[in-house]
Write a structure and sequence with these properties.
Order of helices and strands: HHHHHHHHH
Number of helices: 9
Helix content: over 70%
Shape: elongated
Number of domains: 2
Length: 156
Amino acid sequence: MESCVEQWATELGRQKLTEAGKDIRCGWCLGDADFREMVLERIEQVMKTGMPSSYSGEEVRRHDEVAAERSLQEALALFRLSESALGGMRKGADVKRVLAWALRKRTTVSNRWLSAKLGLGHPANVPGYLRSVENANAGRLFHLRRQIEKTLISED
């Protein structure tokens, strides 16, 4: 331990120690594919039982994106749409807003991810779209939200 502290005290030592730990920090998982799969399964279990927003990291982000992709496909099937059909809709289309709202309810994907995947325009638009769906008490947004709540959200 003392030698590590002494090495850390010099610039060259810091560089060597930083380089030595790079694989652990960037790779997060040392082991074979089976071990990695086991860790990912545990992450999924923890994410289901805890508050997903309390967790972070590359693998959690990837896990959420995969879950969001799966949910998106289910939602598109519910509305009888394809991803390519989303591209032909306006940025703030009701269906797109409800899809973004449902995906955010089930995952912690970023505004950037939602914006890119659903064609919502600038990521800064997403919070307003989510609020509009959340606050809808009548009309098309309300009915679309109820429809998706009955199927996707109730599965959780």
